[in-house]
Write a structure and sequence with these properties.
The protein is of the alpha/beta class. It has helices at 4-7, 9-12, 18-26, 37-49, 75-79, 84-95, 113-117, 130-143, 186-189, 193-211, 283-290, 327-338; strands spanning 29-33, 53-58, 100-105, 122-125, 147-153, 156-162, 221-226, 231-236, 264-267, 272-275, 294-297, 301-306, 309-314, 319-322. The chain has an eight-stranded mixed beta sheet, sandwiched between helices. A six-stranded antiparallel beta sheet has the order 9-10-14-13-12-11, covered by helices on one side. β1 (29-33), α4 (37-49) and β2 (53-58) form a beta-alpha-beta unit. The longest helix is centred in the middle third of the chain and has 19 residues, at 193-211. The structure holds zinc ion (ZN).
């Protein structure tokens, strides 16, 4: 292991960070919401940069189809169906033991988001859907915390730092961004790894500026690029703030924070439905109850098969039912097996 004063030498030699900036990074705490392609790429860069505390939140498991672009994960993680944040935490701790990694396996709704932001200096968007981004946007507008939007699909990537009260928020811009459920997804249109790493680089650069206190240099433009077509677009946002915005305006109603929770949601492009938890579950007892239908059980989940359907139950009681897109059928399956 290199001497501690050598580890960040190439970064502290970079004048805008310097030794003082490095110290600020060591004291920083960042929420990474979603730990798929973007979230895991961002987490690795921030961990290597010496950010002191990373809180990783994701609801999903590592699958073999992730490995082409989600660089923290291995075949072994997929074989063991580890939750992404658990696999990410193990890998990140082996990269930088001084970085505190806080993995949280959870589906995030209005009740959870504020608690996840507590103590953080900023949040990074690694979400795969606009509902979650709007939740993050509302919570950050309410608390005044900056967050950094990022998304990619195909060879295309887009990113924007959002500084509540200082420039437009996500809701101010919603007419210029794809609406929830409207756009292509990585499952329908595919995704190439360089698009992920381009956006992760954009996000991490702005995060570093904010964390070392160089807010004046934070980008005030939306950037979008298509790596295959070779296009790069910069959209200036002066005057783009909506003076009556329901998230960042003078009398906000925070629509996403006040939306009723959805008991069952169809997972984007996945032939699967997630049923919200009713209560935490003792996994060992559940595995015993389900008996011979169980195909996988570990500390984090129990998975079982029933004909064409597969259920995966997490410790918080959340169930993902694969093989259906109808929430009613998914809930019926959950109730049939779990009561
Ligand atoms: Zn706004």
């Amino acid at each position: 292991m290199p001497a501690p004063d050598d580890r960040y030498s190439r970064q502290t030699r970079f004048t805008p960070i310097g030794p003082a900036g490095q110290q600020r990074l060591a004291q920083a705490r960042v929420l990474i919401l979603g730990c798929g392609a973007l979230g895991s790429a961002v987490a690795e860069q921030l961990c290597r940069a010496g950010v002191g505390h990373l809180r990783l939140v994701d609801r999903d498991l590592v699958e073999s189809s992730n490995l082409q672009r989600q660089t923290l994960y291995t075949e072994d993680d997929a074989d063991r169906a580890l939750p992404k944040v658990i696999a990410a935490a193990a890998r990140l701790r082996s990269i930088n033991a001084a970085c505190i990694i806080e993995p949280i396996v959870r589906d995030v709704g209005p009740a959870e988001i504020a608690g996840l932001l507590t103590g953080c200096d900023l949040a990074i968007d690694g979400a795969d859907n606009f509902a979650l981004r709007h939740l993050l946007n509302d919570a950050c507008c309410r608390s005044g915390l900056p967050w950094i939007y990022g998304a990619c699909v195909g060879a295309y990537g887009i990113s924007l730092p959002i500084l509540p009260g200082d420039g437009p928020c996500l809701r101010c811009l919603q007419d210029q961004l794809p609406a929830a459920g409207d756009g292509p997804t990585c499952d329908t249109a595919g995704i190439i790894a360089p698009a992920v790493h381009l956006v992760a680089a954009w996000q991490v650069a702005e995060a570093l500026k904010l964390l070392v206190g160089d807010r004046a240099r934070v980008r005030r433009e939306l950037w979008a690029s298509d790596l295959w077509a070779g296009t790069f677009r910069r959209l200036g946002l002066v005057g783009a703030r909506d003076p009556a915005c329901a998230s960042c305006g003078p009398s906000p109603s925070y629509p996403a924070l006040n939306a009723p929770p959805d008991p069952a949601i169809t997972l984007c492009g996945r032939d699967a439905v997630q049923v919200a938890p009713s209560a935490a579950v003792r996994l060992d007892a559940l595995a015993q109850r389900i008996g011979t239908a169980v195909i996988l059980a570990n500390d984090h989940l129990v998975r079982w098969r029933d004909g064409a359907l597969t259920g995966t139950c997490f410790r918080d009681g959340r169930v993902i039912v694969h093989g259906v897109t109808d929430p009613v059928r998914a809930r019926a399956f959950r109730d049939r097996w779990m009561g």
